[in-house]
Amino acid sequence: QHAAVIIVAAGSGTRMGAAMPKQYLALAGTPILVRSIVPFTRCSFIGQIIVVVPADRIEQTTALLAENSLNGPAMSVVAGGRRRQDSVSCGLAAVADGIDIVLVHDGARPLVSPQLIERCYREVVASGAAIAAVPVKDTVKRGNAELHIAATVDRSSLWLAQTPQGARKHLLVDAFDRLADRDVTDEAALLEQAGTPVRLVHGEESNRKITGPEDLLLAESIMATQSS
Ligand code: C5P
Q: Which residues are marked as site: Positions MEP for the nucleophilic attack (predicted)?
């Protein structure tokens, strides 16, 4: 049973403060976007890779993938949309007929492992929908507008969402069709609101999203530890 993965990389990445979107910045010599794609090419069950980028970066991205030998027939580059969920929707439209399982991965999570991808895939096959996540380790406070603590939240049931996230294609298409007007920050939120149970899969602490300059430094040191 083959799966497609939609790599979402159509954000502006402004929090990095760099001249180009963060997904194109180099991490240990290789662009973050390339590093976010490569682990999927190591998974035999991935039959299609769809990379979603800003409309004006399609050519640049196509060239970048070719330079890194990521230009097989199962690879395509499409334009994204305004919100992350619009970009996922653009990717969904490009999923090949006959592929029933769709994973979504952030183009800014370069340290994902093939093992985690496989765990997510297997859970989607078994349960219909799944998401990588890690338990919250810090104490969590809810604050109010006056910067006072309003509550301390019980963290024992809290998880930090990562990607891959995924589902059977029809569940995602249905959720996107019915809930297009809801603003969400990930696909799982749309699935939840559509009433689809989503299983949590233990993610990896190293599978961090690169958001600011400090994340790049951290990713570099994680990579140095992994290779030593
Ligand atoms: O902004 P944030 O870091 O949450 O974005 C997560 C991922 O979604 C990034 O890889 C980003 O490029 C992608 N994204 C997108 N289209 C948008 C906004 C974000 O593909 N309109």
A: 155, 209
Domain count, the chain: 1
Ligand 1 geometric centre to CA of 10 (Å): 6
Complex prediction ipTM: 0.96
Pocket test for ligand 1, best of 8, 32, 186 (most atoms within 8 A of CB): 8
pLDDT tens digits, 120-170: 999 999 999 999 999 999 999 999 999 999 999 999 999 999 999 999 999
**CA-proximal residue: ligand 1, atom 19 (nearest):** 11
pTM for the predicted model, two decimal places? 0.96
Give the residue numbers spanning the domain of 140.
3-227
Residue whose CA lies nearest to ligand 1 atom number 17 = 84
3-state SS, one letter per residue, for 105-170:
EECCCCCCCHHHHHHHHHHHHHHCEEEEEEECCCCEEEECCCCCEEEEECHHHCEEEEEEEEEEHH
